User: Fold this.
Amino acid sequence: MAIVITVAQQKGGTGKTTLAANLAAALAPSRRVALLDIDPQHSLTRWNQLRPKTAAKLTFSDVSGWRVTGELDRLKAAHDVVVIDSPPQIDTDARLAIRGANLVLIPIQPSPPDIWAAEGTLKLAATEKRRAAMVLNRVPPSGKLRETITAQLQRDGKPLLTATIGNRTGFATAFAEGLAVTETAPRSTAANELRALLTELLERIG
Ligand SMILES: Nc1ncnc2c1ncn2[C@@H]1O[C@H](COP(=O)(O)OP(=O)(O)O)[C@@H](O)[C@H]1O
Ligand SMILES: [Mg+2]
Assistant:
């Protein structure tokens, strides 16, 4: 039975779709990976349409509404990992995706609105008795902001991962080709950060 990672956060633009695509593609050479896009904006679907035939194979699915749970069960049965990209709001679909998760990954950019928006997702994960992990994304090069926000989140007892992802143009470049940074630039800082995130996530899931 597959492990399920649901990328969720009610604020848009925090990096849900980027991380879902990159994590799935980074795992694809070694695991049977499925991606489930339940965001009506379907940017992940567009990414998948751009994905070269020669790239590591991923199963792709986009469903919504009452189909989410059944589709997730179907994907779980035939894969090792299912990654779900969810919409920028907490609706019924997002709730089902969180309910189905082994781990809810919440990307936040190091700024107060992102942290406030993450509260709702953390609460929902707690209600559904699901483990959650926050990851700082698009962290600027200067260390000050990261330190302040990290200290604040740790003080508040938030489940912040050690891994962080910097603000790296490589993510957009790779996305435009239907690829992950680990595929377009495997030795880049972005790829190293992504692999570190993946390792930490898999450790957390156990
Ligand atoms: N680590 C990053 N570095 C640079 N740009 C990023 C990074 N993560 C996301 N982005 C960019 O931010 C924008 C929003 O990301 P996206 O994944 O679509 O967010 P969401 O799915 O949460 O709305 C996109 O243009 C994406 O390329
Ligand atoms: Mg998105």
The chain is about 45% helix and 20% strand.
